[in-house]
Design brief:
Structural class: alpha/beta
Number of helices: 9
Strand order of the largest sheet: 3-2-1-4-5-6
Strand content: 25-35%
Distance between the termini: 18 Å
Radius of gyration: 21 Å
Number of strands: 11
Largest sheet: 6 strands, parallel
Order of helices and strands: EHEHEHEHEHEHEEHHEEEH
Amino acid sequence: MNLRSLKFLTSLGQDNKQFAVIGLGRFGRSVAGALHKMGYEVLGTDISEKLVAQALNDKVATHAISLDSTDPNALKEAGIFEFDTVIVAIGNYVQESIITTLNVKEAGVKHVVAKASSEIHGKLLERVGADQVVFPEYEAGCALAYTLTKPAILERFDLDPDHSIVEVLVPEEFHGKTIAEIQLRGRYGLTLIAVAEDDKKFEINPLPNRRLSQGTAMVVIGSNEDIKRLPI
């Protein structure tokens, strides 16, 4: 059997969103490319004309232009302030990152995601208004650790430092048992959100008499400590 993630969590995105990605280094290109492949309109920007040309050539964004994001007039002329979400991916240049984040928040952009290269950098980004701060290297390291030690975890979404939603493979211990029988909440402190119906669909809020099959996927929510106690 070919086991794979049904990408339950990544299918929850909203439609008709537009994204601007400021900074087309490795992280910015990765984010822009993934959003573009998902069918969203993406504007990529960078002060480097070379990186902009590469983005256009590789088709990682709908549009890409060169500009200095520390100049609010340049951002306004490019229409950045009209986007639903702006990702500031200038993680390695702290001053430019902070000024850019401040520019887009002061202009009224609803949701600003900023890449941080350190804990102090992250705190400064929050101070100037970033709605979400990400640490790609740290998060990639954590994801790798889970992949190596908990291969049954197919996908993970951190709600806060202590709680997550995870998509996992149903373990052998749960095979053939009903949801009521495994006592997920009583024994593990977790709440079951969904169970895979087939390789394309999930059943949301399944009934207690629903039987589980080893190797199929289920989605649970709870504390990270309780998730670690699952027999996976």
